[in-house]
Specification:
The structure is a single chain. With 126 residues, the chain is an all-alpha fold. The two termini are 13 Å apart.
């Protein structure tokens, strides 16, 4: 467990440090706050756990972490599809001004899905 926690701190620390460096030093557009989205987090967490719960009877003994990883990643990709659909609706109604922000908001679910999946697989041993 100690290795998992130190690995989690190292992973998130290096992620945020590299994003901070890209924004503050290299001059990339955006901010660290763009990587935080409560609705995207709730969607991936809730949908991933829901998928996992629905197929719990098919998960073999000792494979819960791997199954959670797959389900969180799937939830992230489904969030991307939902985001693209919402962007397409906005584009077809003439509200194409914020296509870049909509793309970023749609992609954040994929990132959350991979992060949550890796964390779940690392911490859930049963």
């Amino acid at each position: 467990m100690k290795d998992s926690i130190s690995g989690l701190i190292l992973a998130f620390g290096s992620f945020y440090l590299s994003v901070w460096f890209a924004i503050m030093v290299e001059g990339a557009a955006g901010s660290l706050g763009m990587f935080l989205s409560f609705p995207a987090f709730v969607f991936v967490l809730g949908f991933g756990l829901g998928i996992n719960r629905m197929r719990k009877h098919t998960i073999k003994e000792g494979k819960l972490g791997k199954a959670l990883k797959e389900d969180f990643i799937l939830a992230g990709w489904l969030g991307l599809l939902i985001g693209i659909i919402l962007m397409a609706v906005g584009y077809s109604t003439g509200e194409a001004d914020n296509i870049g922000g909509g793309t970023a908001a749609a992609l954040i679910t994929v990132m959350y899905g991979y992060f949550m999946g890796i964390i779940a697989e690392s911490f859930v041993k049963s």
